[in-house]
């Protein structure tokens, strides 16, 4: 009597397992509904179609994306598991903590997006430029928020603080939402994030962390113009566990390129102010390694790593 | 002049169909131990991509509100909250069911849920922009004060031994520390295990502690444990029974509305705070924990009031307060609506449709509750070992699904064994969950407050009038118990159980 339900449960698992065998699993290291997940879910149909296979998204959330990235690194390199990973777990977290993987644990399929970030303040504040905040930070103190330690908002502000010699207090929040609430309430002075955050909240941009002004925001000066040559962006890309067949890697890379060229993906990118940027396997690998190096130096400077 | 064109969208067949499906699904998902709001929404999110905007939001809102209510069904019938939000419902719901009043308990929780939900819709419609602006005045110090106030409710839910209750609360706070330091990003209490850097998942722990340990005790002592309540029917409370309870309903709903409007706090916190304050205020406070409808009203109206008011920061400021609202916002993005401060001005039709949908969802919830409760009652009349095996399977599936990690199943089993032993030792489990739910908020806000005030915690009460008021209230609550015990007893307030 007691064994019947157990046998049934086992049988269902088995049937489910067989049905899943030929589908490609795409690990997204954050929960459903997050920024990375939203883009991944629009990327997936185009990728699946170009590949001619079913692709299923699996959200493996936790520890700033490192649990999901570790799951992608640990999977078998048979092409049935890929990871859709953003900058954090790929190029920041491995320097910040002991992750079981590092940049060498992956084969790089393609980069999909790259979105520059802005220096933001509450709309209608009395400061009007980067210079104002630098003066204020050198004389007194400035408080900046982030969506957690070791995120791009944190790194970009930490880099600016040390470049300009600011007396800055860093307040980490559990995500952009609570941080924007704190900015609306006046608890934090500055925040760094993408155009989406700029557009959706009562904030204004003081500068963009990019070498040149953006076409969409011609009035926003660059950090370089303010005297600090800082370049930060958030990006995402598709990776596979190390050791994938070169032919499979090439076909996945082609499918990825096709996916980001679909109307659907371009539409979402436009709506969410995400910059589309394709880099092939070799370029992407080189970019990640360079980016990780830069972030490691900032984390060291900010006293977060040795 | 209000343009009522949005009503066409809100009452289209597709929307109504989505509401009925979503709400029913939500109630069932909420009632199954292990599957909660987030899992339900993640399951439904991909389906919304092919739907129109308003029906897809209706589906998600139905699942959300339904699941917050649904958790109370299993809390009452099998002493396991279907979702963490319903942990407080169990405190009085299950004792009522044990007395043979399962139908009445379900009736109270259903009525309180629906009324709490409707009241929060009214607050949302009338005062969203004002409340959203007020909520932004809660900085780190103010939220810390609020969490401290909430922690005093551990005393209210410690049945039997106060020392055991406080010990469990402290243990819950400690378990919340496992994972990653929120300020430095360093791993702590992880013993080099990478999985632990993510911290323990609340849902996995709650499932283990309540659902699995309940199943273990019943399987261990087949006839020694409490009887399962079979064939329960939902019996709505009569109007006369509400006498003396309306104030409780209003206060609890108001607490739910306020807490829901603060980004990142949530329904479980609201239910516990409301339960504690109801216990302070109720004339029947000594009956709390023994099956008092006031306790059910407090917990269920507050957690369902959060569903409406969680939309306040989301719709008025575009700030998602939690994972649930983040999923709703992402569904909007996919449909070409940019959430944000201008949502109400640029997409008023969608916002108005959301208001109407929320109201309809709460009414539909009342209707679908009857057949679903009936079905659960029928299921519970099959032999208990089979039900318990089912509870175990669902619990494990639920625990694993939340973060997509099989190790969360192991965590649930370990906490199931711990919960079983703690129950046998007479330790109350609710304080542990309170500590665990509030722990991360407590720590993050405390540490941000310390960073802002250069390490001076004594400066906290002077940060703002809001902080001063909440800290004073907390001090009064903590000192009231001992003071009552020391002073000569003035009249009826004799039972200073603290």
UniProtKB/TrEMBL annotation, chain A:
Highest taxon in the source lineage:
Bacteria
Q: What is a single Pfam family found in this protein's UniProt entry?
A: TctC
Signal peptide positions are 1-21
Enumerate the InterPro entries for this protein.
BUG, Bug_dom1
CDD domains cross-referenced by the UniProt entry: PBP2_Bug_TTT
Q: What keywords appear on the UniProt entry?
A: Receptor, Signal
Name the protein family: Belongs to the UPF0065 (bug) family.
Spell out the protein name for this chain.
Tripartite-type tricarboxylate transporter, receptor component TctC
Q: Which organism is it from?
A: Fulvimarina manganoxydans
Automatic annotation (TrEMBL), chain B:
Q: Where are the transmembrane segments?
A: 16-45, 57-78, 105-126, 138-157, 191-212, 253-275, 315-338, 350-373, 385-404, 410-438, 458-480
Q: Does the keyword Membrane apply?
A: yes
One Pfam assignment: TctA
InterPro entries from the UniProt entry = DUF112_TM (IPR002823)
Question: What are the entry keywords?
Answer: Membrane, Transmembrane, Transmembrane helix
Q: Has the keyword Transmembrane helix been applied to this entry? A: yes
Q: Where is the DUF112 domain?
A: 16-434
Full protein name: Putative tricarboxylic transport membrane protein
């Amino acid at each position: 009597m007691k064994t019947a339900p157990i046998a049934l449960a086992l049988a269902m698992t088995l049937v489910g397992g067989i049905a899943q065998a030929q589908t490609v699993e795409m690990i997204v290291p954050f929960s459903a509904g997050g920024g990375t997940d939203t883009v991944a879910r629009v990327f997936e149909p185009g990728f699946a179609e170009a590949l001619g296979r079913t692709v299923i998204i699996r959200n493996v959330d936790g520890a700033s994306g490192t649990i999901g990235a570790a799951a992608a690194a640990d999977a078998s390199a048979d092409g049935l598991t890929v990871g859709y990973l953003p900058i954090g777990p790929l190029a920041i977290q491995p320097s910040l903590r002991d992750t079981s993987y590092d940049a060498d644990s992956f084969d790089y399929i393609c980069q999909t997006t790259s979105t520059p970030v802005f220096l933001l303040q509450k709309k209608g504040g009395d400061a009007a430029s980067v210079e104002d905040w630098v003066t204020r930070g050198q004389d007194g103190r400035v408080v900046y928020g982030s969506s957690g330690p070791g995120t791009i908002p944190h790194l970009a502000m930490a880099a600016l603080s040390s470049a300009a010699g600011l007396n800055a207090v860093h307040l980490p929040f559990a995500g952009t939402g609570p941080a924007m609430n704190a900015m609306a309430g006046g608890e934090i002075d500055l925040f760094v994030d993408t155009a989406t955050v700029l557009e959706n909240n009562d904030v204004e941009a003081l500068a963009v962390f990019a070498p040149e002004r953006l076409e969409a925001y011609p009035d926003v000066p660059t950090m370089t113009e303010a005297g600090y040559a800082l370049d930060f962006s958030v990006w995402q890309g598709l990776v596979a566990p190390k050791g994938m067949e070169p032919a499979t890697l090439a076909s996945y890379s082609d499918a990825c390129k096709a996916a980001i060229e679909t109307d659907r993906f371009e539409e979402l990118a436009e709506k969410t102010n995400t910059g589309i940027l394709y880099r092939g396997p070799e370029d992407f690998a080189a970019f990640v390694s360079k980016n990780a190096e830069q972030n490691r130096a900032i984390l060291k400077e900010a006293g977060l790593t040795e | 002049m209000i343009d009522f064109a949005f009503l066409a969208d809100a009452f289209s067949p597709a929307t109504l169909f989505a509401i009925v499906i979503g709400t029913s699904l939500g109630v069932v998902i909420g009632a199954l131990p292990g599957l909660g709001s987030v899992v339900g929404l993640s399951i439904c999110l991909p389906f919304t991509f092919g739907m129109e905007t308003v029906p897809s939001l209706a589906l998600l809102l139905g699942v959300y509100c339904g699941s917050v209510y649904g958790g109370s069904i299993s809390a009452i019938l099998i002493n396991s909250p279907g979702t963490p939000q319903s942990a407080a419902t169990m405190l009085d719901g299950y004792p009522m069911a044990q007395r043979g009043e399962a139908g009445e308990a379900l009736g109270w929780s259903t009525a309180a849920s629906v009324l709490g939900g409707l009241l929060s819709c009214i607050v949302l419609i009338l005062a969203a922009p004002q409340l959203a602006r007020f909520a932004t005045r809660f900085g780190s110090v103010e939220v810390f004060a609020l969490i401290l106030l909430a922690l005093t409710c551990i005393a209210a839910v410690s049945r039997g031994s106060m020392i055991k209750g406080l010990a469990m609360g402290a243990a819950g706070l400690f378990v919340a520390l496992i994972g990653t330091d929120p300020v430095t990003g360093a791993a702590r209490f992880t013993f080099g295990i990478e999985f632990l850097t993510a911290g323990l998942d609340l849902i996995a722990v709650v499932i283990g502690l309540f659902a699995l340990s309940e199943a273990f005790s019943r399987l261990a002592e087949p006839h020694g444990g409490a009887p399962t309540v079979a064939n329960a029917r939902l019996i709505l409370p009569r109007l006369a029974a509400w006498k003396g309870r309306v104030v409780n309903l209003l206060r609890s709903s108001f607490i739910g509305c306020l807490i829901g409007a603060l980004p990142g706090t949530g329904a479980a916190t609201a239910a516990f705070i409301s339960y504690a304050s109801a216990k302070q205020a109720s004339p029947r406070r000594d009956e709390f924990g023994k099956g008092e409808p006031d306790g059910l009203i407090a917990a269920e109206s507050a957690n369902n009031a959060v569903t409406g008011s969680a939309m306040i920061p989301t719709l008025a400021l575009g700030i998602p307060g939690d994972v649930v609202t983040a999923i709703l916002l992402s569904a909007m993005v996919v449909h070409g609506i940019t959430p944000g401060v201008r949502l109400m001005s640029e997409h008023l039709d969608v916002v108005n449709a959301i208001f109407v949908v929320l109201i309809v969802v709460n009414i539909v919830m009342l209707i679908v509750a009857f057949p679903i409760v009936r079905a659960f009652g029928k299921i519970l009349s099959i032999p208990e070992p089979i039900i318990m095996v089912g509870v175990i399977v669902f619990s494990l599936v639920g625990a694993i699904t939340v973060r997509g990690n099989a190790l969360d199943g192991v965590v649930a089993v370990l906490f199931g064994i711990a919960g079983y032993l703690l129950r046998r030792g007479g330790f109350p489990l609710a304080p542990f969950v309170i500590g665990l739910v509030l722990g991360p908020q407590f720590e993050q806000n405390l540490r941000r407050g310390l960073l802002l005030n250069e390490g001076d915690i004594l400066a906290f009460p002077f940060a703002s009038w809001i902080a001063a008021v909440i800290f004073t209230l907390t001090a009064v609550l903590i000192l009231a118990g001992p003071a009552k015990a020391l002073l000569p007893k003035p009249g009826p307030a004799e039972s200073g159980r603290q």
